[in-house]
Design goal:
This protein is mainly α. The chain is built from six helices and two strands, in the order βαααβααα. The protein has one domain.
């Protein structure tokens, strides 16, 4: 029996990444921290209900069949989304309680990670790979 790997078309992943970057930039420029709640909510919906409204909207604009695009592994994208949601939540919470420096630190991390992923290097993928390698080496050593 063949294992099927669940995937997401790359344009949908890129749209979500751009949405995060632009939302963070908009919140910084406008001084309206509540803007961070929009990608945070979209990310939470994607993680909890497997329904990311940003990706669902972007899917309407695909010109070809979703399977004809470069695939991104679903489980990897879920891992990345967890990181993004945590950073957005901590950034928003920090801004709301007046911890401005922490707010900027968390939002810079998520915006930078999303932008670097758009450019072609996935920081979350690297972290997940290293974690999996660590777990494998640990299981092989018997400790």
């Amino acid at each position: 029996m063949q294992n099927t790997v669940r995937t997401i078309p790359r344009p949908l992943v890129r749209t979500n990444q751009w949405f995060i970057v632009l939302s963070v930039l908009s919140s910084w420029i406008s001084g309206q921290e509540w803007i961070l709640a929009i990608p945070l909510l979209a990310g939470l919906l994607g993680l909890v209900f497997n329904y990311n409204p940003v990706m669902r909207l972007a899917k309407l604009f695909l010109r070809k069949s979703p399977s004809s695009y470069i695939p991104e592994e679903h489980s990897q994208q879920q891992f990345n989304q967890v990181i993004a949601v945590v950073c957005l939540a901590l950034g928003l919470a920090s801004f709301l309680i007046g911890w401005t420096i922490a707010g900027y630190v968390f939002t810079i991390m998520v915006a930078l990670a999303a932008f670097v992923a758009i450019l072609g290097f996935c920081i979350g993928c690297f972290i997940r790979f290293q974690w999996q390698q660590y777990r494998y080496r640990k299981s092989r050593s018997g400790t």
